[in-house]
Design goal:
There is one protein chain. The chain is of the alpha+beta class. The chain is built from seven helices and 24 strands. A ten-stranded mixed β-sheet has the order 5-4-3-9-10-8-7-24-23-6, covered by helices on one side. It has a six-stranded mixed β-sheet with strand order 11-12-13-16-22-19, with helices on one face. The N and C termini lie far apart (47 Å).
């Protein structure tokens, strides 16, 4: 993987099948936007104004093999500055099938590019009638007087990643790979599910102002965190401004300079959303996209350990009378199967981590084997809250990364590197992962149909799962064919769930 040093403008040389181009890489940023309000942070410096034109995007060819061996490669050189013109056959333009042109909304509020793929031999995908239906979970209370809301999680497939890995989509029709076509289907799907909170992964930076701003026009407010390094996508959380107020939010960077195992550019995003009907009962919503590499469970487990530590710090509430965790909802593409150590840690609250450890010393960033910051653990015993300046992890969103010495871990070595991991958040999965008849559920195709996307929620007695959008079985997914297709705009299936929040019980 090409590693670039941090600077505002950087030049990189990318080679693909004897084709060489030079492109300008724009620094990472965090984006917070509501309609009419935009705040962009560039490497710690805060700027106000619109995000900027789509020309900020950069195309880098990744050497990582995702699902199969590389058969052929293409590269998109549609970057801010081109020093050497590439062959037109591998440089997507507005008329190129992969670029797809601009996204538009028709006058009736639906997308205007949803049509069948003529490049796929006119074969229509068969969708079973019960493919995606709402399934009730438990019993609905007829006398419930709390707050009911819907959460959706969706890996929308960043267009630049599709273009960097065309060999993964050779069985898809060319029309279905256009961003204009895919965006229309993604837009329609989100519109039909009408989530109150929308968690997205693989959100492309250059599409924030050209596509995702459409949701702001519909009454959503969004926060966004770009992956670190040279990555041009990230995670976003959108919420309906009519229902929620954003009380606070933090970002999590899984690149930690002192930790060899945490050397990747993945990130997490966590928001504290308060229902307008009950401002004193906020819900903590987190989303992430963990590393893909199937052989690196060790990295994903380490990334999750860091994410859970930040959720633990952010979601804990102490009003002087009572202390407890706020209701928590965790979503994302974990790139982990249900039998993995990552999912086992979430499901059971503990897992043996010995097979996945290297020489990284967790004392260096002060994160214990209980997925907590040491400073948080010690301060809670004193009844003191902990802000970012008191912890040891790195985050480029803060001045100088704020890599603070914090508490001395040498006095508490028994809390680190034991080979076992646990967490105190008491999380439950929205989905069963296996149907009652034994058939496994699936959310995407990675050599075979498998679940890697999840929604978890805390066992807080104020938060109750009411219904979920049914996931199909792996066998049923075979009827879909390759994704994206005529009906679906991403290579992942969307997840969604409806929750009830008892505003009386959740008030601390």
């Amino acid at each position: 993987m090409l590693k670039l040093t941090h600077s505002f403008y950087r030049y990189s040389r990318v080679t693909c099948e004897n084709i060489i181009c030079y492109s300008t890489i724009v620094g990472q940023h965090t984006h917070l936007s509501c309609r009419g309000e935009t705040c962009v942070t560039w490497n710690g410096a805060q700027l106000f104004g619109p995000l900027g034109p789509a020309s900020f995007q950069s195309r880098l060819l990744s050497s990582i093999k995702k699902r199969s061996r590389v058969k052929r490669s293409h590269i998109n050189a549609n970057a801010t500055k081109i020093h050497k013109q590439m062959n037109n056959s591998v440089q997507p333009t507005v008329t190129n099938f992969s670029y797809g042109g601009q996204f538009e909304i028709s006058t009736d509020g639906t997308s205007s590019e949803r049509h069948s793929d003529s490049d796929n031999d006119n074969k229509q995908t068969y969708i079973p009638p019960d493919f995606r239906i709402w399934e009730p979970v438990g019993k609905k209370s007829s006398s419930f007087e709390g707050f009911r809301f819907r959460v959706m999680s969706y890996n929308v497939l960043a267009q630049y990643l599709l273009e960097c890995h065309p060999y993964l989509y050779t069985n898809c029709g060319l029309q279905n790979l256009k961003w204009k076509t895919r965006a229309a289907k993604i837009y329609d799907e989100i519109l039909s599910l009408s989530p109150d909170i929308l968690c997205l992964q693989e959100v492309q930076v250059s599409h924030l102002s050209t596509f995702y701003s459409k949701f702001e026009e519909m009454g959503y407010c969004g926060i966004f965190k770009q992956k670190t390094g040279e990555r041009q996508d990230g995670c976003a959380i959108y919420f309906k401004k009519s229902l929620f107020d954003l009380q606070d939010h933090i970002t999590v960077e899984f690149y930690q300079p002192k930790m060899p195992i945490l050397n990747r550019d993945n990130i997490g995003l966590i928001a504290k959303l308060a229902p307008k009907c009950s401002p004193g009962t906020p819900v903590v919503v987190a989303t992430t996209h963990l590393l893909y590499n199937p052989k690196r469970t060790d990295v994903r487990l380490a990334q999750l350990q860091l994410l859970l530590a930040e959720i633990d710090r952010f979601a804990y509430s102490n009003d002087g009378k009572e202390s407890d965790y706020l209701p928590i909802i965790l979503t994302g593409d974990f790139n982990s199967t249900p039998d993995s150590a990552v999912v086992t840690l979430l499901d059971r609250g503990h897992v043996s981590a010995s097979p996945y450890r290297d020489t990284s010393d967790w004392k260096k960033i002060g994160v214990t084997d209980n997925c907590q910051h040491l400073s948080v653990y010690l301060n809670r015993q004193k009844g003191v809250s902990t802000d970012f300046s008191m912890i040891k992890i790195y985050n480029s969103d803060y001045p100088d990364g704020r890599l603070d010495p914090g508490s001395d871990p040498q006095q508490h070595t028994e809390l680190f590197n034991s080979g076992d991991l646990a967490h105190p958040l008491h999380l439950k999965s929205v989905y069963s992962k296996v149907k009652h008849d034994g058939h496994i559920e699936a959310t995407t195709f990675q050599d075979y149909w498998v679940t890697v996307d999840y929604i978890y929620f805390s066992g807080h007695n104020a938060l109750k799962l009411v219904e979920r959008l049914r996931l199909p079985t792996a066998a049923e997914c075979a009827a879909l064919g390759w994704l994206p297709n005529d009906h679906l705009g991403s290579d992942h299936l969307a997840l969604a769930a409806t929750f009830e929040l008892n505003t009386l019980k959740s008030s601390l």
